[in-house]
Design a protein that fits this description.
2 copies of one chain form a homodimer. Chain A is α/β, with parallel strands linked by helices and 689 residues long. Helices cover 37% and strands 21% of the residues of chain A. In chain A, helix 13 runs parallel beside helix 14 (394-406). At the A-B interface, helix 5, helix 8, helix 10, helix 11 and helix 16 of A face helix 5, helix 8, helix 10, helix 11 and helix 16 of B. Chains A, B: InterPro entries: ATP-grasp, ATP_grasp_subdomain_1, CoA-bd, Ligase_CoA_dom, NAD(P)-bd_dom_sf, Succ_CoA_lig_flav_dom, Succinyl-CoA_synth-like.
Chain lengths: 689, 689
C-alpha cells in the first residue's frame, strides 16, 4: 500500500538521526535538508537536543504527530518504534533503512514480519527494510549519494538492490539523465517493484507524471502483475526498460546468494518482457543509455542522418546502426547538392554529413534545418561534435540546444569531449539535456529499443476453443504424468488443433481397413513398449496392405505390445511447438523448426500464454530460420498463418488447463496448404485434491 | 621511413607557430612546452620575435639546423618550406598538420606528392598531412587535447583519423589508461598504420617497449603487412586490439566519403584479425576497455572470482561472463568455510563473494588472499567496490592497490562511484591503475579477448600438394571464367582433395560400363546445357542398368546435350567450402555445412589463405552447427580431421593459384570415415599477358 504520506509527507522524522554524516541516520538528514524539504523535519536522538540544526527528541514517544518516519536504528529496536509511531503519532509511512532482517537471519525475518503486521494494521506504507530509501521531487529520503538532478518529467527508477540503484545513478548523472523518483525497495517486505509499478499505473496522470520507468529486478515475484501494469503503462504512453539480473546459471546463483531470490527461468523473462513491450537491458550503462534515449521524442521510422565534423565516429555509428537493423540512407539529389554548396569545400553530405573539422555552428544549424525540412526520408538526426581543444564548443552546443527545442524530429547529441569540452558539456546538460558520449553505445541502445514490439493485447483469442470440454477432459484424467494418447487427441481436438488421423487396434483386419480408407503409404507404430524405435516398433512408408499385414504380425510379437497404431505417411517441413509451465509466470510457449533446428541450433523463440496473433507472428518471425518458413531459393515455404493459428490455439488451451506442466507437438508437419500435428506429448500435474 | 629524429628529436621547429592557442600552430607549441620537451625549441612566425617565450624566426631559411619540423601553415606553402628545411637545415622528420591536400582536391594531392618526393629524396620521415601529430614520452607534438598520462609501459595508439584518436583519448583518460605514444597518421602519405606497426615490430625491444597496441583503421591498405607485423608482435608478447570501421554497407560508404578509402570486404577483415590474433573492437568504449584489460597480467584460464560489497553488479557481471564463455565457479569446501567464518554474518562466499555493505578493507584483503592462495581453480579476481557516500574509500582502494602489486593472479578493479568517490578513484588512478566503471562492459571485453586465438603459424602446410602441376594446369587454361570440369578435377587432384569418381561420355555403352564398375545406385547429369535441373538434366538414385540406359537416351535428346556424366550416388552429410579472392587480402576461405546452413542461416566461418591446421579447426569449431559435425543425439558426426585437411589443402592450392578468383566445393559429402568433393566450380582470371 502506497500512501500519500510516503510520496508527499508534510512532516518527516528521522529516528536515529545523527550529526555524523558518515552514518545513514546522519547522511539522510543531510540529504533531506540540502534537498530543501519544506515540511516539518524532526529527529530522534537520545543524546542530543538538536541534530544538524533540526530539533531532536529523546524518544519516538516524545515526537509530535508525523506522517513519514525514517528508521536508522538497530533492527531489534525497529518493531517497537514502528508500533509507537503508527499507534500514537499517526504515522502513515515508514522507510526502514536498517539491515539485519530477513536477508541475514531467521530472527531478522521475524522482526520484519512484526513490522509488516503493524504497518498493515494501521494502513501505513513500508519501504524496506534494508534499503537506501526513497527520493523524489518532494523529499530526498535516501542516505546515499549521488543525488541526481530532479525533474517531474525525469525518470522513475525502481530497484530491488540499493547499491545497484546508487551505481545506476553514478552512470546516469554523467549522462545528464534527470530523475523524478528513485525507489530502493530493499527486502520489499510490503512494497516490491511490482507494487510500485501498479501504483504508478493505477494513479497515472498523463499530464503530470513521468513517462519513463527504469527497473532493476533480481527476482520477479509476481510476473502477472508486472506484465499487466507494465503493458498498461506502455499503452498509456510510457516507456519502460529493465534489467533482470541472474540470466545465466551462475548468475542465478549470484542473485540467490544475494537476496534469497530464486531466479526465474530466463526464457520466461524474455517472453514476459516481449509481451509487455519492456526493453531488456543487461548493464547499468545500457539501462541509463536507453533511459536517455527515452527522454527524446520517439522515432517514426528507422532512417537516421548523422551530422559530424569528424569522420571516424560517424563510420562506427553507421556500422552499429546497420547491424541493429536501422538505416543510414544515402542523401542525394537537389536538396543534398544545395546543402553541399553551402558548406566548406571538401565537406560531404552523402550521410554521414561531414562538415569538416573547420565546420561552424552555422553549418550545423544548416544541416539540422535540411534534415528537418528537406530530407523527408529522415526520421532522426545524430550530431557528433567533439573538439581537439582549439576552440570552445559553447556556440556549437547552443545551436544544438536551440534546434532541439523546435525540431520535429529527434536530435541525439553525441558530445565525446567530456574532458576537453567539460565546461561546455556541463552547460549543455544544465539546460536539461542528456549526452551520449559514445556513439556506438547509443547506436546499439537505439536499435534495441526499435526492435521491441508494442505490448500485446490482453484479450484471450478464443477461436472457438471448447473450454468446457477441455476442463471435462482434464478433470477426467485419473493420474499425474504423461497422459494417454486418446486424451492428447481429445485435448488437441477441443482446441481446434488439427491432428493427423490415426487408428489403434490389436485387430489386424481393422488396422488394414483403416489404412485403406486413409490411403497408403502409412506409418505403423507399436503401442505398449516405451522406447518404440529401439525395439523396431516404428516402420515408415509402408506402401501396401501385404507389407502392413507382415509388420502388424511382427510388431505384436514385441514384448509388451498391446496394439498397433497406424497413421497416413505425410510429407512436409517439420515444425515444433513446446510449452512449459513456469511457476508464477504461467506457460512459456516455444516454437521453431523441428529436428536439428531445435535440438542442435536451439533456434526457438518464446512467448507467454495466452498469445495473440501478433505475438505468434512475432515469435515465428524472430526465428533465425524464418526464411525456410517463408520459402527460399525456389523451395516452397509453409503456411505461416496456420502455424500462427496453432500457436495461438495451443496457448489458449494452456491458459485453461494449468495442470499441463509440459507438452510438445513434435513434429508438426507443414506444407504451403496445411499444418498438422503428427505427434504430441502432454504431462499433467494436478494438485492433490 | 621512420627516423630517430621523428621519435627523439634534439630540436624542433614549429613553422606557423602562434601566440594564439586556439590555432593549431599555437596549441602544438603550448603542448610541447607544457610537455617539458628538453631539446631546442624554435618557432617560425613572420611577425614575431618570440612566440610563447620561444625564439621566433621570420622565415624557415633563418632557422638553425633542426631535426624535426612541424608545419602549421597553409597547404600551398608547405612544399617549399619542406624543401628548404630538408635541403638546408638537415631536417629529417616532418609533421604536417595542415589540411587542404589530397583529402580535399586534386591540386592538394599534387602538393602532397611534392612533399613526399622531397622527404623521400632526403631520407626524412613524414607524418600527415592532415593530422593532429605525434605524441610520445619524448615530445608532445600534437595540437589536440586531452594529453593523457604518459608512461613507457603505456599503450601505443595508432589512428588513421585524428579526431577519432582524440575521442579515443577522451574515453581512455577517464579510465586511467596511460599511453606511450599516440600516432595520428592523417592522409598517411608516407607513413600509414601498417608502417608504424612494421617499425615497432622490426625495432621491438621486449624490455623497453610498450606491449600494447591499439589501432583505429578506416582502410587496410596493405593487409599482408598488417598481418605479418601484427602476428609477429603478438608472438613477441604484445597484445593488439583494433577497430576496423566501415564493416556495414552504409558504414563503408561513410568511410569512403571520409578519407577516400575503399573499404575492404568485412569477412576478409574478420579472417585477417583471427589469423593475426588481433582483438576486434567496434567502439571507442570497447577499444579503451580492452586496452585497460591488456595492462593487467594475462589470465591463465577462464575461472573468475568476484568480490563485492554490493550484490547486484556481481550478478550482472556473472551473467556477462557466463554469456561470453567464462566461468564464475562455485567456491565451496574447507577454504570457503574458513573464509566465511572470518567475514560478517550474512556474508556469502559462494562466488560472487559478498562481504556485505559493511565489509571492511580487511575483509577485502582476506578475500583477495584466499583467491590468490586457497582457491586454486580461480584464475582472476574482479573486485567491485563503490560507495553510497557514507565513508570514504581511500583505505579500501589502498588494499586493492597493495594487493595488485603482489598478487600472482590478475585483479580487475571495478569502481563504479566515479562521482561520489571521485577523489578516491582519482587517487587510485594516479598510482597508475585503470578503472572499469561498468562491470558488464568489462565482462564483455574480457570474454572477447579470451576468445581470440593465438596468431596462426606463418608456414604454409604443403602436405604434398603438387605445386608445379598446379601451375602447369593453370597456365594451360586458355580462357578466363568458369573452367571446364576436367581442369577442376585435375586441380583438386593435384591438391590431394578427394573427388568423387565420374565419367563423361556420349557413348551409352561406356557410361553403363562405368556405372557397373563403380556400383549402383548412380547419379546421371547431362553435359552441355547450363541450367541442368531446369531441363530435367539431373537424375538421382538410378538403381540399375536399364534405368540408366533409358535416362541416357532421354538426356541426349535435350537441346545442347553433348554427353552424359555419371557418378556413384553417395550418402553423407553435406559440407561446403568456398573461397573468394579479395583484392589486397588474398583468398578468403569460407566453410560450413551445405544447403540451408549456408544459404539460409549464413552459418559460415572465414579464414585467410594459407591456413594452418589449428586455423582450420578453429574455423570448423566456430560454426553454430558444429555439434552436427561432432555428432549429436545418436547421430554420427563427420570426419572432422579430413574436413580440416581439405580446408588446409584447398588454401594451399589457392596460395599458389592466385588466378582463382572464386571457387566452391558444394557439396562436399562426409561420413564418419571419409569426406569427398562431389561438385566443384572454379572461376579464374588471368591478367592480360
Amino acid at each position: 500500500m502506497i500512501t500519500s504520506q510516503l510520496l508527499r509527507p508534510e512532516s518527516i522524522v528521522v529516528v536515529g538521526a545523527s550529526n555524523n554524516v558518515h552514518k545513514p541516520g546522519g547522511a539522510i538528514l543531510r540529504n533531506l535538508i540540502s534537498g530543501g524539504f519544506r515540511g516539518a523535519l524532526r529527529a530522534v536522538n537520545p543524546k542530543e537536543k538538536e541534530v544538524q540544526g533540526v530539533t531532536a527528541f529523546a524518544d519516538v514517544k516524545d515526537v509530535p504527530d508525523t506522517e513519514l518516519a525514517i528508521l536508522a536504528i538497530p533492527a531489534a529496536m525497529c518493531p517497537e518504534a514502528v508500533e509507537v509511531l503508527a499507534n500514537e503519532k499517526k504515522t502513515k509511512a515508514f522507510i526502514v533503512l536498517s539491515a539485519g532482517f530477513g536477508e541475514e537471519t531467521h530472527e531478522g525475518a521475524l522482526l520484519e514480519q512484526q513490522i509488516l503486521d503493524t504497518v498493515n494494521r494501521y494502513g501505513a506504507s513500508l519501504i524496506g527494510p534494508n534499503c537506501i530509501g526513497l527520493l523524489n521531487t518532494w523529499h530526498h529520503s535516501v542516505f546515499s549519494q549521488p543525488i541526481p538532478n530532479l525533474d517531474p518529467k525525469g525518470v522513475d527508477l525502481i530497484s530491488s538492490s540499493g547499491a545497484t540503484a546508487v551505481f545506476i545513478l553514478e552512470s546516469a548523472v554523467t549522462k545528464g539523465l534527470q530523475f523524478n523518483s528513485v525507489w530502493s525497495v530493499g527486502n520489499g517486505k510490503q512494497i516490491g517493484v511490482e507494487d510500485v509499478l501498479q501504483f504508478m499505473d493505477e494513479h497515472f496522470d498523463a499530464e503530470k507524471d513521468s513517462h519513463i520507468k527504469l527497473l532493476y529486478i533480481e527476482n520477479i515475484k509476481d510476473p502477472d502483475r508486472l506484465l499487466f501494469h507494465a503493458s498498461s503503462l506502455i499503452r498509456k504512453g510510457c516507456k519502460i526498460a529493465a534489467i533482470k539480473a541472474g540470466s545465466s546459471e551462475s548468475g542465478s546463483r549470484a542473485a540467490s546468494s544475494h537476496t534469497g531470490a530464486i531466479a526465474s527461468s530466463d526464457s520466461a523473462v524474455e517472453a514476459l518482457f516481449r509481451k509487455a513491450g519492456i526493453v531488456r537491458c543487461f548493464s547499468r550503462e545500457e539501462l541509463t543509455t536507453v533511459g536517455c534515449v527515452f527522454t527524446l521524442p520517439e522515432l517514426k521510422g528507422k532512417n537516421v542522418a548523422i551530422i559530424t565534423h569528424a569522420g571516424g565516429p560517424g563510420v562506427m555509428l553507421t556500422d552499429a546502426l546497420s547491424k541493429g537493423g536501422m538505416n543510414v540512407p544515402k542523401l542525394e539529389g537537389e536538396a543534398a547538392e544545395a546543402l553541399k554548396a553551402q558548406l566548406f569545400p571538401g565537406a560531404s553530405v552523402g550521410n554521414p554529413i561531414d562538415v569538416l573539422a573547420t565546420g561552424t555552428p552555422e553549418h550545423l544549424r544548416l544541416c539540422l534545418d535540411f534534415c528537418e525540412n528537406k530530407f523527408d526520408n529522415i526520421d532522426a538526426v545524430m550530431a557528433i561534435f567533439g573538439t581537439p581543444g582549439l576552440v570552445t564548443m559553447f556556440d556549437m552546443y547552443d545551436v544544438l540546444h536551440e534546434k532541439m527545442q523546435t525540431c520535429r524530429k529527434p536530435i541525439f547529441p553525441i558530445l565525446p569531449s567530456v574532458n576537453t569540452a567539460g565546461a561546455e558539456v556541463a552547460e549543455f546538460l544544465a539546460k536539461g539535456h542528456v549526452n551520449f558520449a559514445d556513439e556506438v553505445t547509443l547506436g546499439t541502445a537505439l536499435s534495441r529499443i526499435m526492435n521491441v514490439p508494442r505490448p500485446a493485447a490482453s484479450e484471450i483469442e478464443l477461436l472457438g476453443v471448447d473450454i468446457p470440454r477441455i476442463r471435462r477432459i482434464i478433470d477426467s484424467i485419473p493420474e499425474n504424468g504423461y497422459i494417454e494418447p486418446h486424451y492428447v487427441q481429445a485435448l488437441l481436438h477441443a482446441a481446434g488443433i488439427p491432428l493427423v488421423d490415426e487408428f489403434v487396434s490389436d485387430n489386424k483386419e481393422e488396422v488394414i481397413a483403416f489404412a485403406r480408407r486413409c490411403g497408403f503409404p502409412v506409418v505403423a507404430k507399436v503401442v505398449g513398449p516405451v522406447h518404440k524405435s529401439d525395439v523396431g516398433g516404428v516402420v515408415l512408408n509402408i506402401k501396401g496392405e501385404q507389407h502392413l499385414a507382415l509388420e502388424f504380425d511382427r510388431m505384436m510379437q514385441i514384448p509388451d505390445a498391446k496394439a498397433v497404431m497406424v497413421q497416413p505417411m505425410l510429407k512436409g517441413t517439420e515444425l515444433f511447438i513446446g510449452a512449459k509451465y513456469e511457476e508464477k509466470f504461467g506457460h512459456v510457449v516455444l516454437c521453431g523448426l523441428g529436428g536439428i533446428f531445435v535440438e542442435v541450433l536451439k533456434d526457438v523463440s518464446s512467448g507467454l500464454a495466452p498469445l495473440s496473433y501478433p505475438e505468434a507472428y512475432s515469435m515465428i518471425r524472430s526465428l533465425r530460420a524464418y526464411k525456410i518458413i517463408k520459402g527460399t531459393r525456389g523451395q516452397k515455404g509453409v503456411n505461416e498463418d496456420k502455424f500462427a493459428e496453432i500457436i495461438v490455439r495451443l496457448s489458449t488451451l494452456l491458459r485453461f488447463a494449468t495442470e499441463i506442466k509440459e507438452m510438445d507437438i513434435n513434429p508438426l508437419l507443414a506444407t504451403e496448404k496445411w499444418v498438422i500435428a503428427v505427434d504430441a506429448r502432454i504431462r499433467i500435474e494436478k494438485k492433490a485434491g
